[in-house]
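CORE FACILITY INTAKE
Project code: CF-77B
Contact: R.S. (postdoc)
Sample description: multi-component assembly, four entities in total
Requested service: structural model of the whole complex
Turnaround: standard
Below are the sequence entries exactly as provided by the requester. Do not edit them.
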Amino acid sequence: MNVNPAPAAEALEAQEQLTAPPYWSTSVSRVTDSKVFIRGYDLEDMIGELPFSAATFLLLRGRIPTPAEADLLDAVLSAVLDYSLQKSGTVAARYIASANPNMPAALAAGILGVGKNTMDPCETARFCIQAYERLESGSLPAEELAQQIVDELRSRKQRIPGLGHPVFRYVDPRAQKLKEKAVAAGAWGPRAEFFEQIHRAFTSIPGKESIVLNDVGMMGLVLVEMGFSPEETTGLAILSTLPGVIAHVAEEIKAARPIRTVPEGTAEYDQTVRNFVNDRKDSGWDAE
Amino acid sequence: MNVNPAPAAEALEAQEQLTAPPYWSTSVSRVTDSKVFIRGYDLEDMIGELPFSAATFLLLRGRIPTPAEADLLDAVLSAVLDYSLQKSGTVAARYIASANPNMPAALAAGILGVGKNTMDPCETARFCIQAYERLESGSLPAEELAQQIVDELRSRKQRIPGLGHPVFRYVDPRAQKLKEKAVAAGAWGPRAEFFEQIHRAFTSIPGKESIVLNDVGMMGLVLVEMGFSPEETTGLAILSTLPGVIAHVAEEIKAARPIRTVPEGTAEYDQTVRNFVNDRKDSGWDAE
Amino acid sequence: MNVNPAPAAEALEAQEQLTAPPYWSTSVSRVTDSKVFIRGYDLEDMIGELPFSAATFLLLRGRIPTPAEADLLDAVLSAVLDYSLQKSGTVAARYIASANPNMPAALAAGILGVGKNTMDPCETARFCIQAYERLESGSLPAEELAQQIVDELRSRKQRIPGLGHPVFRYVDPRAQKLKEKAVAAGAWGPRAEFFEQIHRAFTSIPGKESIVLNDVGMMGLVLVEMGFSPEETTGLAILSTLPGVIAHVAEEIKAARPIRTVPEGTAEYDQTVRNFVNDRKDSGWDAE
Amino acid sequence: MNVNPAPAAEALEAQEQLTAPPYWSTSVSRVTDSKVFIRGYDLEDMIGELPFSAATFLLLRGRIPTPAEADLLDAVLSAVLDYSLQKSGTVAARYIASANPNMPAALAAGILGVGKNTMDPCETARFCIQAYERLESGSLPAEELAQQIVDELRSRKQRIPGLGHPVFRYVDPRAQKLKEKAVAAGAWGPRAEFFEQIHRAFTSIPGKESIVLNDVGMMGLVLVEMGFSPEETTGLAILSTLPGVIAHVAEEIKAARPIRTVPEGTAEYDQTVRNFVNDRKDSGWDAE
């Protein structure tokens, strides 16, 4: 340690650095030499005392859930589980695993398959939140605003997220089961109810009577009522289907069939053969 | 549909295609128009009847776990939870989220931080399995082989995975809690016991007496005894810390501080300034 | 081979499979036992005859570029190169490499840092294409439509992509150099010109006179005029900065400083300590 | 600014912080308000004066290459280009793009397909470097050591990287073209030559006479002689095939065929149907 007093200017600069706001700030967790605090709780106290779903709730919402809330979140996490090889991300993960039999790489690849074209509760969550904000900030009664929203979307040819199913008509039994649990847990409220009002307005359109509110949409509504943001909803959807991807990747690594490609006969390739030497010359490149 | 019978040659070729082994094969799940089967079970029957940890066990191991096994897996999943900004993957995920506020992208980035330098129960799992294979296929008694393995690793300057902690001495209380649960669930067996024998042999070295069997190592042993492969162990470790990463990414997206870089004053840059025009010429490039 | 004729029904089904459109279709390349065809050209003919930038053009646009076009694309690829630790993706890549010293994983993580908050030529490309479509499909003269677009964006508080720089005023010399090359290569046209008209309209706003059209925006315009789609523009931007990320990751792997975290003193952690046992009980969980 | 002098203790602590080694250190590039320095060179001087391949060399090796070296690196980058749908990573990237039409996500997924089972010049590079180290540090003449290495690998049933091709016999013409360029550029040396010696020793084994040194292996040798590390070699291989992946992803996004799955008839699914209610009860779960 330098025993000489620091020159005044440097010391003042350092003083400023000490008082500048820190670059990073987090309330999620904290680590000391011997302890880990999860949202302020000592991890050592938590072991075996809080199920994984409840710990997940705590990590995201910042408080310990009631047993009913933990149960409900657990039900949401278990609602979809896996979609076999009918999910693009899962197939991609298997392709990656066949070339690079590394679990983290394959899981990461699988997760990247979540986006604009996939059924994500986040869509319904975002829609639900925004619709409710319109209801709260406006003066129209719910029934009228619901009808207006439906009309707007129809005119813009935009679809309402969370609706529809290839087979189920009028009611999606899995969505209904989830709603029952939510109501029982006291996690059903005005946002979800207004979304259902919009669904009712939609099904009053001739020809649309049987369009269901599906399980993924219901997941979105329940998570909104539980206080999760749309981004968190996407994260929870990814969490919920990760065990399935792990199972697929493990199965692929075990099958040890290296370098998967497209199966024989499933691809057509442009068969055109062109003359490189001529075309290169014609494009203006000098002869070598 | 073409009512004319297929020409003989084409029909034979098609027949061969029909009997060729399929490119893909999976037992994890199956999807029909209206149903999803998870390891042969109708998902509709499962809703609300199997907690997420038990569904995770089913997806990976292919059978429904006992309540005690589900409980144990849940405890393993809840053993670590989060490691704040002391985990490279989490910090990387936050950097990604600051530039690309997209949950799947940020989670994928975080997961890619699992590798050679991280504490992964997979290491202990693999070591445990291999050590036990040596025991089974050889003729040395456990105590002697344990000592031999310790001596081999010492001479190669290789460390034993799953051991050590910056603060805990002799016993890691979190590891011990996990072991108690495993024993109670009937998921403690000869593989884990032989690993403990190796640990004992290691701690008989002067100066190493207080080196603990840590919580991550214990997770590996428990998962091995539960029948999971090392790759599945990595997958489960990633699953267990995913809620934490989701929480960090959500926090980062909410903070909306775009384009994180290295904090002021934490980086030194090579300040050398070189003359491009001269050096380019000296390297043999023609003047323009 | 089965010498018996195929049963009629199975043969007809197989016949349908043979005539069904293939699942995959590509014109990018084709592989046989001994040859690879790149957009119809034999790769063996190409070796050493087409520089990498020209091969890149061929892969994306499907034809051999003129030497001037190849030169221009090469200039676009070389326009930015690297942005040191001031780019979130690069820092994330270094964090990943410190924990998982694996080049593919670290590069993938770095690439995921491209998104909504990053300067991407894709934004300007998309804007440029859409603005020109409005010009073509409407009846307003360019100057008027340019002003109208500027007014619309101002009223919606939306910014025009591709404009602005912390230091450069009126002209960004790097953007101008790129434009000169484009004009010389015959790759400057009505789309880029209309964007410049919009820029001029913008700079006629009092206080905005010195706002430049920057290098990333110019990259977008040039790539649009070269016929690339906005997605391809993003891909080329990623390609152009990949050597920089490789250099950073290699430097990090070589430094071998495992498990990077946030530097000492740069993070504040919520210090609240809560009583888990009490709070758990208060949340409704039974005592064990 | 605080005009009072800093208290002695705080000032001393701050002084220590100022003198502590910085957390990050890089020589790759540096950014100021108006300038970017690439390995010490002002980027503004570089525009249009250094082709992309040469800039790549500069970023990685830290010096401007000679025109011949830049040419050689460019040839290496152009040696493979694309492998159509016969590359797992490319197929994975297309799957991701079909669900999440986002270029960065799809490229990242494609890159994750580089690993243990893929042909990577990095393998040959690493092998070449290690073999040469043995030659230098030992006393055996090259011919003898080469034979010994071949014998060792044969006995361990390990293959030599960089050898073999499904069709080419004795000589891979693409590899030879690349070697000629390397020799002409003065980038052929003792490491590559010793590898060729090992190759000759291998082909002296009866039955192995026609096994070629292939193009990917030759890429590895040339990059080693150019001074790149094995990790950098992997990075350059990824760079070289990125335009191809961009082309495939762009084609996929344009085809707009959302949610790719496995093609009809290419997958077999375990058809077992099990009774969930019974099995759950038999596994020890209480009836609800």
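Facility notes:
- Residues 1-6 of chain C have pLDDT under 50 and may be disordered.
- The first strand of chain C starts at residue 24 and ends at 26.
Invoice: internal transfer
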